[in-house]
Structure formats: structure tokens, C-alpha cells
Specification:
Bound molecules: NADPH dihydro-nicotinamide-adenine-dinucleotide phosphate
Number of strands: 14
CATH architecture of the largest domain: 3-Layer(aba) Sandwich
Strand order of the largest sheet: 9-8-7-6-10-11-12
Number of helices: 17
Distance between the termini: 20 Å
Shape: globular
Number of domains: 3
CATH superfamily of the largest domain: NAD(P)-binding Rossmann-like Domain
Strand content: 15-25%
């Protein structure tokens, strides 16, 4: 039996070389549940830690397709089916050149605990490819998606594994993937979530991660008798999560002053209002342009190659990608009196940054709690598909809000340290207990 977190991590690192993000995600979870494990030694006796860091299955495959010039291109596809103790594998597909097995294992591992927190019956999984949809024609994106699904279809199914979108996989890609699945399998089932409304999608799914993150942040603010009203908010990213987080902040009376993409950030001290946001949505979702163009249209500043954390704000919602806030960024945020950070993205704050937030006792909501709204509404999409019915917008939004409140309560229950709520610890322990107990109930499988 392992005597220390370091001893356990040595085994994980030796078994999974060169998977830095995976090591980082495991370390964060194990560190924060370690004391709980010592108080509950049956988890150690049943080797739950060794079992939970090993994916049940990893599929890795060739994705050949032809570009518009007729040249053959080859990408690599993956599906990590990490844990099915509490339900079918569930987690997004990421299409981005940085995708590797280590990144998908980090995301799949996080997904286990996140899905557990939602209160819905969903296991953890993640997949994707090193394909970059940026700069590709519609035809190229479709050819790639069809080839990707030609292999993936044999590994997934509505009661086995239900993928969704993530970075680089939005409604367009889900449509092409679903069409190909249906063609090959000759069945119309809820095998993917994030589907179009006309063909089995759920209302509020596109909005869910961003809205959910703001609902969670609002719950955190309430613990200090505060709200979004009049708050200045820094958001990073300008994709799905960032757009709908911005929309909800505006609705709750806050002012969003930044957005970003992988080239740089925009700072608009006047605030991004509903009309400006509509323009950004068109820029990013239809014209597929760069965020820099915002300043040509509306003024403000463009910070080439920089992240938004230098902007003065009360609340930060990192919603782009992993490790986008380092120690220095975290110190700048705290120095500028930012007192609430809710992670729309997965693992956007690195371990040193988290240490700064926790040490300064600011409200810090980790991704697996704060961005769980997306997968929660995916779970609701699965429920609606199974029942062959559709709930209205208000019903789904109310369920999302109630799930985010439940997640907040779970974090509070397990994360209370005197008057401070350590949400990292709370989310990890609450997410872990349900999965670990289910694994024990099901025997050594
Ligand atoms: P999108 O592809 O819609 O948007 C991603 C945004 O992040 C884009 O603005 C993109 O800029 C930017 N970005 C991507 N990679 C980098 C990078 N390396 N450096 C700086 N900026 C980058 O993805 P989503 O909005 O769906 O996802 C954002 C985050 O939220 C991810 O961490 C994802 O895992 C997480 N998440 C998403 C959920 C969902 O439902 N969509 C659910 C839960 C978590 P550019 O256009 O230049 O690439």
C-alpha cells in the first residue's frame, strides 16, 4: 500500500511516461482526497486508486481522408473509455493539433468525477483527433468526420459510450458524425449529444457549459452575500463556453471586458454588450475569423499573443484551454482584487496558480464542478432521447440550474475548511465517493 501521494505518483508516472497533463490531473485529485482515503482505508485495501487511474479501454485508430486537392491526409483518432462504474462512458471529442493520448487521458480522468458530480448516471470518457478544423473547407471537415466515425462507430452506442463536442467539435461536426453513424448502423439513436434541435438535440445544450459555469460562480458569490450585479468579469476564449458564459453574465448584470483566442486577447473597458456578443458569435461560429477583428469593429485594445489576466476584474472565467493561468497570472489577478475564479475550461489553472488562489482564500471553482453543466445537459439530452420526447427551454434551464446548485452543495459538504470552502477538495471527494463505492459494489472488474 502506498504511504504517500508521491509514492503513488511515482507508479503513475512510470506506467504512463510523457503524459504530463494526465499526471497533473491525477496528482490534483489524489492530493485532495488523500486524507479522506486515510480515514477510509477500505478504498486502499480494494486498490481503488490503482484501478481508477487505469482506463477500462483505449482505442487508437487511423483516420485517412482526402483534402480538396485530392491528396490523402492521415490523422490519428482516439477514444479513451475510462470508467463505466456509474453509467455509459460519456465525454466530448476534441479536434485540435495538440491532441495526444496524454491530453485525452487527463480529460477522460477529470470527466469521471465531473460526471459523478452531476448526479446523473454517466461514466467517464473522452476522445478526439489531432485534426485541425481551422482553415479547412466544409467539404474537408465533412470528409474527415465521416472517416473518423467509420472507425469510431464500432466502439460506441447509446448504452455503451456517448460522445459529445469539445474544442474544435461544435454543432457542425456533431452533425457530420451523427449522419455517418446513422448511415453505417442504420439506426437513429442518441449516440451523440450536442445534436441539432431538429434531430434529437436538447434545448439549452449549446448554452449549458457557459450558463452552468456562471450559475456555479453565482452560487459561490452568494456564500459571501454577493452577486454578479455590477461586477467586472474577465473571460478567456471566444468559443462555445466563452460565448454563453458572457451571455449569462450580461443577463445577471455583470460587465465582461475581455475575450481571447489562441492568437491574443481583446480588452473592451466599456464592456461587451449583447450586440457586440452577437457580432462575436457570427465572427467565430459563421465567418470563423480571429478575435483581433473585434477591435477594428468596436475599439478597445488588442493584446497580441497575450492572455486576458492582466485586465482588472472582480471575477475571472477562464474558458479557453488547459494551463492558461500560471502562477504569475494568478498573482496578477489576486493583486488586481479578483476574488472569484470559476473554470469554464478543463484545468485552465496550473497547480501553482491554484495554490495562489487557495492561499489567498479567494472563491475558486475547479472545472470539474464549474463546467459540469455541459455534460449535465448532455445527460438530459440522453434522457429525452430515451423517452422519445423533448422538454422545453425553461424546463431544461431549471434542471441545469438545480444541478449546478447540487454540485455547489456537494463541494461545500466535503470542502469546508473552517469558514473557507475548498472547492477543489470538495469536488474531488464528492465525485470520488460515488464512483469508488460503485466500483466496490461491482466487484473486481
Ligand atoms: P471551442 O473550440 O468552441 O473554443 C475554444 C476557444 O479556446 C477558442 O476561442 C480557441 O481559440 C481557444 N483556444 C483553444 N486552444 C487554445 C490555446 N492552446 N491557447 C489559447 N486559446 C486556445 O471550445 P469550447 O468552448 O467548447 O471549449 C473550451 C474549453 O471548455 C475546453 O477546455 C473544453 O474542454 C472545456 N469544456 C467544454 C465543454 C463544452 O460543452 N463545449 C464542456 C466542458 C468543458 P482558437 O479559435 O484560436 O483556437
Amino acid at each position: 500500500m502506498y504511504k504517500t501521494v508521491d509514492a503513488f505518483m511515482e507508479t503513475v508516472i512510470a506506467k504512463n511516461p510523457a503524459q504530463d497533463e494526465f499526471h497533473q490531473a491525477v496528482q490534483e485529485v489524489v492530493e485532495s482526497i488523500w486524507d479522506y482515503l486515510q480515514d477510509n482505508p477500505h478504498y486502499m485495501h480494494t486498490k481503488i486508486l490503482d484501478r481508477i487511474v487505469e482506463p477500462e479501454r483505449v482505442v487508437m485508430f487511423r483516420v485517412p481522408w482526402r483534402d480538396d486537392q485530392g491528396t490523402v491526409q492521415v490523422n490519428r483518432g482516439y477514444r479513451v473509455e475510462f470508467n463505466s462504474a456509474i453509467g455509459p462512458y460519456k465525454g466530448g471529442l476534441r479536434f485540435h493539433p495538440s491532441v495526444s493520448l496524454g491530453i485525452l487521458k487527463f480529460l477522460g480522468f477529470e470527466q469521471i468525477f465531473k460526471n459523478s458530480l452531476t448526479t446523473l448516471p454517466m461514466g467517464g470518457g473522452k476522445g478526439g483527433s489531432d485534426f485541425d478544423p481551422k482553415g479547412k473547407s466544409e467539404n474537408e471537415v465533412m470528409s474527415f468526420c465521416q472517416s473518423f466515425m467509420t472507425e469510431l462507430n464500432r466502439h460506441i452506442g447509446p448504452v455503451t459510450d456517448v460522445p459529445a463536442g469539445d474544442i474544435g467539435v461544435g454543432g457542425r461536426e456533431i452533425g457530420y458524425l451523427f449522419g455517418q453513424y446513422k448511415r453505417i448502423r442504420n439506426e437513429f439513436t442518441g449516440v451523440l449529444t450536442g445534436k441539432g434541435l431538429n434531430w434529437g438535440g436538447s434545448l439549452i445544450r449549446p448554452e449549458a457549459t457557459g450558463y452552468g459555469c456562471v450559475y456555479f460562480a453565482d452560487e459561490m458569490l452568494k456564500t459571501r452575500g454577493d452577486s454578479f450585479k455590477g461586477k467586472t468579469v474577465a473571460v478567456s476564449g471566444s468559443g462555445n463556453v466563452a460565448q454563453f458564459a458572457t451571455e449569462k453574465v450580461i443577463e445577471l448584470g455583470g460587465k465582461v471586458v475581455t475575450l481571447s483566442d489562441s492568437s491574443g486577447s481583446i480588452y473592451d473597458p466599456e464592456g461587451i454588450d449583447t450586440n457586440k456578443l452577437k457580432w462575436v458569435m457570427d465572427l467565430k461560429n459563421i465567418r470563423r475569423g480571429r478575435i483581433k477583428e473585434y477591435t477594428d469593429q468596436f475599439g478597445g485594445e488588442y493584446w497580441e499573443g497575450k492572455r486576458p489576466w492582466g485586465a482588472k476584474c472582480d471575477v475571472a472565467l477562464p474558458s479557453a484551454t488547459q494551463n492558461e493561468i500560471n502562477k504569475e497570472d494568478a498573482e496578477t489577478l489576486v493583486k488586481n482584487n479578483c476574488f472569484c475564479v470559476a473554470e469554464g475550461a478543463n484545468m485552465p489553472s496550473d497547480p501553482d496558480a491554484i495554490e495562489v488562489f487557495v492561499k489567498n482564500k479567494i472563491l475558486f471553482g475547479p472545472g470539474k464542478a464549474a463546467n459540469a453543466g455541459g455534460v449535465a445537459v448532455s445527460g438530459l439530452e440522453m434522457s429525452q432521447n430515451s423517452m422519445l420526447m423533448a422538454w422545453n427551454r425553461d424546463e431544461v434551464d431549471a434542471k441545469l440550474k438545480s444541478i449546478m446548485t447540487c454540485i455547489h452543495q456537494a463541494c461545500e459538504k466535503y470542502g469546508k475548511e473552517g469558514s473557507y470552502i475548498n472547492y477543489v477538495k470538495g469536488a474531488n471527494i464528492a465525485g470520488f465517493i460515488k464512483v469508488a463505492d460503485s466500483m466496490i459494489d461491482q466487484g473486481v472488474v
